[in-house]
Write a structure and sequence with these properties.
The chain is mainly α. The protein is built from 9 helices and 4 strands, in the order αββαββααααααα. Helix 7 packs parallel to helix 8 (175-194) and helix 8 (175-194) packs antiparallel against helix 9 (208-222).
């Protein structure tokens, strides 16, 4: 959250210690050296306002259990012919149940389905919905899940079901994130092809090629065997 505020919103450079710990400092580039103290205070004031907004959103979000956000997903459209994000979550739950059986992970079923149910819940949080910190989707879901007392594997799966987000990105490390991520991508692929949203040589608005590659990469990395 702090780094996003600096790098994305203000184009500042955050400063880390030798151990990689974020320090209460930042670097900003400017033209000239005149009025340096005023420039410094001005930039600090702007960043402080950004961080105050983030703090407000965060603590407001903590007042609402992540579970309560699921119903609110009915207000977020996924695709005009495929319904809302809530509809997508319900489809993903069915896909996940199928995968749990085929992959012989019945003993993890409860946590896996819990992960799928909550995977998109942070999309309607203040932090993400206010468009200030959309890059933190999944990360905030993990944080809110942990604060709400969810299992560590469930919280991690909420974050990691988005992996991989781009070529060379990390892949989900736990079975919760693996099955949630595959279910999400299968729903997107099958749904989009089903309603005629098919990528062409020049257009792929739903990034379906990347979605398909994501499924393949996850299966290969996790060495999944379907029964």
């Amino acid at each position: 959250m702090l780094i996003i505020s600096m790098k994305v919103h203000q184009r500042y450079f955050p400063v880390l210690s030798k151990k990689g710990k974020l320090l209460p400092k930042f670097i900003v580039i400017r033209n000239g050296i005149d009025f340096s103290e005023n420039v410094k205070k001005g930039n600090e004031k702007v960043l402080s306002a950004r961080l105050a907004d983030a703090r407000f959103f965060y603590y407001e979000d903590l007042k609402t259990p992540l579970d309560n956000n699921v119903e609110k997903l009915k207000t977020v459209v996924f695709q005009k012919d495929l319904g809302t994000i809530y509809d997508k979550v319900k489809r993903c739950e069915k896909i996940a149940e199928f995968l749990v059986e085929k992959l012989k992970y019945n003993y993890m079923k409860e946590d896996i389905l819990r992960t799928v149910k909550l995977a998109k819940a942070d999309l309607v949080s203040n932090m993400i919905n206010e468009k200030e910190f959309t890059k933190l989707q999944g990360f905030m879901g993990e944080n809110y899940a942990l604060k709400g007392g969810e299992e560590i594997g469930v919280a991690l799966g909420i974050k990691e079901h988005y992996y991989p987000r781009f070529q060379g990105d990390l892949l989900p490390s736990g079975i919760e994130g693996i099955i949630a991520g595959i279910s999400d991508r299968i729903d997107t692929l099958v749904g989009c092809f089903g309603v005629g949203v098919i990528p062409t040589g020049s257009k792929d608005p739903f990034a379906l090629r990347r979605t398909a590659l994501g499924i393949v990469n996850i299966i290969i990395k996790a060495i999944l065997i379907f029964h």
